[in-house]
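Notebook, p. 212. Picked up where the previous page left off. The plan for this session was modest: take the two constructs that came back from the sequencing core last week, fold each one, and keep the raw output in the notebook itself so nobody has to go hunting through shared drives later. Recording the first one now, exactly as returned: residue sequence, then the structure token string.
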Amino acid sequence: MRRIGGMAAALVLFSAAPLVAQYFGQNKVQYSNFDFRIIETEHFDVYYYPAERTGALDAARMAERWYARLSRILHHQFQGRKPIILYASQSDFQQTNVLDATGEGLGGVTEFAKHRMLLPFTGSYAELEHVIGHEMVHQFQYDVISRGRIGAGMQTYIHANLPLWFIEGMAEYLSVGPIDPHTSMWLRDASLEGHLPTLEELTYERVFPYYFGHAIWAYIGEKWGDESIGQILQASVQTGAEGGFKRTLGITLDDLVSEWRDAVQTTYLPQLADHYRARRIAQPLLTEKRSEGTLHIAPALTPDGREIAYFSEKNNFFVDLYLADAETGRVLRRLVKSTLNSNFESLRFINSAGSFSPDGRYFAIAAKHNDRDDLVILDIKKDREERRIRIPLSGLTTPSWSPDGKQLVFTGYDGGLSDLFIVNADGSGFHRLTNDKYADLQPSWSPDGKTIAFATDRGPGTDFEKLTFGNMRLALYHLDKGTIEMLSHMDVGKNINPVWAPDGHSLAFVSDRNGISNLFLYDFETKDIYQLTNVYSGVSGITPLSPALSWAHEADRLAFAYYEDGEYNVYAVDNPRSLKRQPYQAPAVPLVASLLAAERRAIAGDTPAQASAAKGTPAATEPRAGGSIYRSPTGGGFRSSSTPSPTSDTSALATVSVKSLIDSSPALPDTSEFTFKPYHTRFTPDYVAQPTIGYERDNFGRGFFGGTAIALSDMLGNHTLLFSGAVNGRLSEAQVLAAYVNQTHRMNWAIGGSQQPLYFYLPTTVQQTCYSNCPPPTGLPTP
């Protein structure tokens, strides 16, 4: 998402236009008074409060590692320290005074005035690292624009006018690396539906630019080398994006985007033969035609499969909770209208889903109220709020009922970390199941009540000392023993959102292990994985970790969210286990992620068989006629843009790549190297109006004029000073303002004084003057 004067993370970074203004009109309130402290690292001041100290120390180490990566790839060093402000939860983050962070989809932001990075913990260290990397790219961009002087460069920023796909796409590419399955989903869908954006559509933001921008920069990095990205940024600051690409790559932006569109289509369209749309194996349930709106996410079926709850904008401006007929898709009613109810300030619709009680009468959801999230139980039959359980945590997501309807399990957020918790349906018996740094998400209670399935990053790939994080896997929490069992065959890809089969003998889940998010089934008897769908775009919610599945136990019906034609729709399939075939085997030839693979095969003259065998294996080629030539900044000389950049460390032309830097994980600093300080208010400028002064004589002798204005604040935005003055002739007629604003507590207040000269227009009049024999006044009798 984007905010004026700042840039936000891809995460959060999402497709549906209504998300931008989901809570337009609601007021930001400071419910909590955070006792901020500072961790000083070599390049950053990390602001945190005691509840998040553990996570803040790890975030500080991640920041220094990202600086080591990005400074190499962009060939740029910070000249001053950069601030990073951390919040323990989304609810805390929405109380920040630095800017407006009340939008549901804002996962992080970097503002220009002081180069402040602000972000909340989300319970997943892998996502935290991604957001820190994404936002730090913006800090580098701002540092280049301001030439290392925080607060400077506003005119340069305005003059360069870099488009959103440029700045956000670069941040996503440098923090994620080559095209990932989620970006590929967007590219496949746009290729199939004919929606690949043109340069004009990208420039004027007629499309959501994050993922397309990611793919464009990935194409640039693959074709010209990642070392070109820093050069393009430096040149674009001076000459604009068009001039930056022309100067660095010798190609116009229009030609670049045209080549990129061709590369995307030749990469993804051939995959059509091996995949299909969801409607081939499932029935459309919630679509724009049936239910209105283009956003239908987080489906939750009633146990009998007759009704479905979901989040949607329903062709309106806001995302709310709806109930629809699960056969026709006809909307029955709106369950929660968050925009008019202060008890539902946020429905957590991006990262959370609700669930029905076993009898289908009650529906449990997470909803923000004041400074934290509540567990809200709605009575569907009476269309009212039955109970609101105040959870002593800063956030919660995805509640799931026990089969007897007496308890709920959910993911709770405490100090920025996520764990599993249980509470009785009447609000008593709150207790914690897990207590560690691992991400424990999307719990689902088994039909026999003995086990809870959930998604987690536990596994050999996760090491909190080295801050490396493995893929998301499925695990079981055995309530009788209090032990965790990791399921087998989860070593590859994202594996999330487990939902139980009615008989409890298998789990359906979402995985992108073959490059596309599809439905899979884990069989407890055979310990095998089965692929249930092979769709073209993807089974997915808004983000890669968004919940997308629901299984109605009485009806044996599975509903899933599906991305198609730029929309999120819901499909349903009865008896989903009938889709089970042979146990899953990884494809012999993985899906091609390289946008240059087809071009290089064509240049090399490969036969189809050779091309198939060489999928994903770039080959050196000769320059094409008219192709651009690139000069490496590392002294490697000239090469054709169609020749892949060398990556071998022993090569004379060795260059650094984004992927190698992310994979190699530069050394982390030790926390003993950090300095800890209390936070003190210190005012620094936010904005200074360009001072003016002049002298001009007129008939009244008032010759001096001029003025300026300055706004100062502390780093947290709690205290603000405003001063302005302007004179046009005499000091007695000067305009002067001085004000102080305090936003530290819930009650905000301000004090100030001003002098405001009043000017008014006196029209010119003509009056007749009479000295003798004057006529009497109008309206009086004549003597």
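Okay, moving on. Second construct, recorded in the same format:
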Amino acid sequence: MDTLIGDRAACNARQVGFKFARQSEMRRAGLPVPAFFCVSAQCFAEATAPVTEEIERLVSRIRFDDYTTVQRQSEAIRALILDLELPKALVCAIEEQAKQLFPESARVSVRSSLVAGNGALAEDSQRDALAGLADSFLYVPQGAIASSVKNVWASAFNAESLLYRHARGAPLLGYHMAVGVQQMIEGRRSFVLFTRDPRSGARLAIIAAGYGIGEGVVQEKVAVDHFFVSEAGIERQIAHKPSALECGTDGDGVTLVDVPEAWRQRPALEDREVEALVDLGKRIEDLFDCPQDIEGTLDAHGRIYILQARPITMQLELRQWWSNANITESFGGTSSALTYTFAQKFYAVIFRDLYRRLGVTPELLQKNESHLQRMIGRVNGRIYYCLLPWYQLHRQLALFPLFCGSWQRMMGIEPEMLEGDPRIAGVERVGVRAALRMAASVPRFATLVLGHGRTMNRFESWWQSVAERRPANWATLEPLARIQLFRDIWREVAEEWGVTLINDALLGASARLVERAFGDWLPKIDPGALHALSCGNEDNASVRAALSLLDLVALSKAEPELLTALSSRGAEDTWRAIEQGEFGIDVRESMRRHIERYGDRTLEELKLEQPSLRQEPWRLLLMLQGLTHAASSADLRAREDALRGQAEDQLKRALGGKPHLRAALRWLLQVQRDCTRHRENSRYCRAELFGITKDVCRSLGIDLVKRGVLRSLDDVYHLTLDELFGYFDGTGVSAELQGLADVRRGELERNSAELPVLFSTLGSVRDSLPAGAARSHDAPAERLCGIGSSGGRVRGTARVVLDPHAPIASCSDMILIARETDPGWLFLMLAAKGIVVERGTLLSHTAITGRKFGIPTVVSVQGATKTIADGASIEIDGTSGEIAILAPEEAARCFAS
């Protein structure tokens, strides 16, 4: 094989490495990549063959717990390679190729591209970037290319490269070094671009740009601006940029130069340039079919050049999607630990029963048990659907492709919102095998549908019998008896509740069919007619509860003294007066009957921390007070009946000559109404189930307060269901429940920032929340903020390091504070609990290293080395970018806890 490979050739990554194989592919695709040629990995292997055994011997003597031995052995290996004499044929070939490809006066860059063998990591691979660990040389005159190639070869065994491989568990040997020789572009401004947010994988393009050549931006030598580009537009963080990295005055090497004063605060990129870079990024991402980390530069004329593109090394299989588009109807705002753990149990149990009813085998259910336990999550105190388990569970069902669309609409999911995640994409496609599975499932599903009305009626009768077992006063039962009754009910729930989910699916499907029928058969009819046909002449538990409430409003209006007392004396005092008969027996008994029948229907009824009317009946008066201007139940009924009648007349006129279509539409509408009635009835059953749970937990909480285990009843809601029950039945891990309640209350108060309706996380959830979800901490003495680039929150001792070779006080509990880092800092970075640097970007070596090794990292913190004192106690949040310098008393409290 040729030792030199041209830039337009079909580069083989095994010979030139991923870096230049991609460069070649981009040039063939017409992207603005400067001309280059490569010295192949085969050439490296042949040239270093005489010293291979000695290299292996030196590597075997390295002790990675002693950095000096790493440096010593590295220097010895480098010396071996530098002492080699390059074959004359290779030198001649390099000189000839340079003359053909570059203008005579052009300077070049001589760049490394580490090529893997034996399963080792390769530079710029999708598995691991290995970026910046080998040497590159800039502004090299063409006569010095050959000697620079040898220096690049030697850098394959740089100390930081060996240290990195060891830390990643990669082989220390088994690498060859390819070298790229590329024409230098006189960059006046340079950039790095991520086509996705590397912290979460979200569709957010991030650009860091500064003055001078790309080395200044990539190696954190100059200050940079940041541009965050989403569908909402461009968000800018403009830095003060006093210096640029440019070619030295003698034409050799690079040097920092001053930027003119007028340019220092000006954005490094105009909006049109930002948009052009994002478009280029999309082209490159499409070309390689994965998110890209791109480096480039702009010359004096504003022409863009791409110097490198590599995959963003994200483990997208660890990405999770979170949504509360639908669940906020049940659990709006923050929810207590008790509510969440009960809801988690509820979802797992009822969906297990659903899948059982639809023919999923016990073995498959057992296999997917972990997904059932992760259908919902609690982030920042708020309950979210964790979407991947839902898709993975629903795929157990052969008929899922048929109702996937209606289910997604019900959940508030638009498929394009999930950006084509391969674990989700294609769920609606039906192949031959899927069609056969569907055909086999049709008889069972048809049987369920045909008998659905009877099944729902049986469910409602069963639940009524369960609800009648509810004690009037739970306190008359021993705590274990209450827990046992709850578990007895729960066992029945696990065998019955799945039918309500089948009803929800049928409701969604019938509603979709009705909408389609209206669109196809009645395109000119008033759209409001569809909704009017769904109301009136229907009765369900929710309607009965609402009408009962309106009847109480009318009764209250007939007693002006009651409303006056409510305004002047408050709800609790007024309720006591009602109980004493002050406003008449009819008022008292009517309100008692409403609470007896509908006492679990209240605001936020599924939150266990929200009392039901059975527990705090005076809350009924607050509900009535808010409905004093509402229509009466009779007026409401009459209005609905009138709307329904008008819609029926429209339907009759529109389909008068098509009785078969009218009959089909009437049937579909009746199916929809029946499913709606069953849904509202089952939702009230659900309110009663949660109401029973409220009664049990509240009564146990009162017992714990009496025993002195908890200070107040509110503390019980900061416990999990297992912790509460476990205290009484001996399965609990801790009896110190007050401490748990205090910790969780404090956490909820500090950490309740609202997140987007839909967001994604990558890896550890709490380390990769959207940046807007920053926690609010106790007030520190001082706070700084940069760009969070590797998630995690950590406290430690600041160690300000300006020179990595100088001794430091201690690495114990160290949070590294530096102006910038480069690969040579790796030994210090790996010893740190956290990293803070004044420069850098989400794309810099510091940020990438932090993410790779799970070290919370904040970059672009101006003045960090001056503001943060060496030895100070600090706390950093690698997600939000916040840095808190703790006051002494705060630090003592934090570290004590």
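Notes on construct two before I forget. The first strand starts at residue 4 and ends at 6.
Flagging for discussion at group meeting.
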